[in-house]
Write a structure and sequence with these properties.
The radius of gyration is 32 Å and the shape is elongated. The protein is built from nine helices and two strands, in the order ααααααββααα. The chain has 356 residues and is mainly alpha-helical.
Length: 356
């Protein structure tokens, strides 16, 4: 009897221990599930926040486009094919992301989203570059043909100024004229000349439309009509260089002139370089990388800086303005991302401490 009683007591104690252990395991599993759910929710919130900010960026840039193209009201309305092409190029599709079981896929998802955001930005900038270049070509042809057929008009009334820039469709630079020169007009496709001249005839601005059959016809027109008129007394004062500062060259490689009627102060190219460097350094500062990647990343800074300077100094001021505003917005966006993720990390660390 004593042996059986002792066995019963020991069995009861063992059963109680197993019950306590089982309850402890259940509590531990419940805490792990809660912790895992918090990670999943944090990851989902990160992805949603990234795309929400990207949509906000798109809205801001669309407002910028409206500002640029609305400077002169109806005169600067975008053509339907430009709007269609821009919309198609700016289209972006959101893909669903799946977290793994322990919720540790947040960093990988952030990298995936950042890569897609970068590709989206590249497509967007490329689309804006072609759209603004096409529209700039149309405006330059329109300005030249209008003045050619109406030389009594003050050419300052034909251009679209923006703050210190005299003509939004020429580079922001004292090395560029504010009226179209021969070189800028040579770069325009002959079809653009035909289309613009037809619109000007319909508006009663010029008497006859152009009908070039090909690039050879345009070359003949440039040589026989455009070049002589630009060299004439009616047009030459607006593209005349400062005395002694024409046809300058550096080591025989870079040729330039400083014009009396320069189009700008070179502010947008400078702002593009400064904002590009700051944006790249901010990105590097918040990205962990091994030493082998740092050298390539620094080289990327130099390449992107040179590209910013080249595009903003060589092409129309409208694109340079878009580039600078996009860089500034990207800097603000990056700072916002950093603060958001720091806040999420603090919440996650606090949750882990409470769980411990």
């Amino acid at each position: 009897m004593r042996v059986n009683l002792r066995i019963m007591v020991e069995g009861q104690e063992l059963g109680n221990q197993l019950l306590v252990r089982e309850r402890a395991q259940r509590v531990e599993h419940r805490e792990e599930d809660d912790h895992r759910n918090e990670h999943r929710q944090a990851g989902a919130h990160r992805v949603d926040a990234l795309f929400a900010i990207q949509l906000l960026e798109l809205l801001v840039e669309l407002l910028l486009i409206i500002l640029v193209f609305g400077l002169k009201g109806g005169r600067l309305g975008l053509d339907g094919r430009h709007a269609h092409g821009g919309a198609a190029a700016l289209e972006v599709e959101r893909h669903d992301h799946q977290l793994d079981q322990d919720g540790e896929d947040d960093d990988r998802q952030r990298v995936i989203v950042d890569e897609r955001v970068q590709r989206f930005d590249e497509r967007k900038q490329l689309a804006m570059f072609y759209a603004l270049r096409t529209f700039a070509n149309e405006r330059l042809v329109s300005q030249f043909l209008t003045f050619y057929h109406n030389p009594e008009i003050d050419p300052h009334t034909l251009v679209e100024p923006f703050l210190w820039i005299k003509n939004l469709w020429m580079p922001d630079s004292p090395f560029a004229t504010y009226m179209p020169d021969v070189q800028s007009l040579r770069l325009v496709d002959y079809k653009v000349w035909n289309d613009v001249s037809a619109k000007l005839v319909a508006d009663g601005v010029i008497p006859q439309a152009l009908s070039f059959a090909g690039a050879a016809d345009l070359t003949t027109y440039i040589n026989d009509v455009v070049t002589p008129f630009i060299s004439s007394a009616a047009y030459a004062p607006y593209i005349a260089p400062v005395a002694g500062l024409g046809n300058l060259n550096i080591l025989g490689l870079i040729r330039f002139s400083i014009y009396q009627e320069g189009n700008g102060w070179f502010l947008l190219p400078i702002l593009s370089v400064v904002s590009q460097i700051f944006m790249q350094k901010l990105t590097m500062k918040n990205t962990q990388m091994d030493p082998s990647q740092e050298s390539s990343q620094k080289m990327m800074i130099y390449v992107m800086t040179f590209m910013s300077l080249y595009f903003c100094a060589s092409y129309n001021s409208a694109f340079a303005l878009y580039w600078v505003v996009s860089n500034i917005y990207a800097i603000i966006e990056q700072i916002g991302f950093n603060k958001y993720f720091e806040q999420q990390d603090r919440k996650a660390s606090k949750a882990e401490e409470v769980g411990i």
